[in-house]
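WARN no homologs supplied; continuing
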Amino acid sequence: MTLKIERTLGARETRVRLSGQLRSEQLRQVRSEVEGAEQPVVLDLEEVDLVDVDGIRFLNECESTGISILRCSAYIREWMLREQGR
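OK structure emitted
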């Protein structure tokens, strides 16, 4: 499975919804969507079912710059926290 990216402009935010697998091969495309979006940006990960270490590092980078991460699975959130502690 690949990664599907949907960008939705809302009244208060731009939501970038990801579905599928977030892997290093797709990060350039996701980064482009986030950087080209109206601010503030929210990443919605409800339908992300697999992430690699580069994806986790990207998500942590997004949070550190003020991008909210919504509806991610518990394993992704836990991995993000562990990676931050390194």
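Residues 2 and 21 are 6 Å apart (CA to CA).
OK
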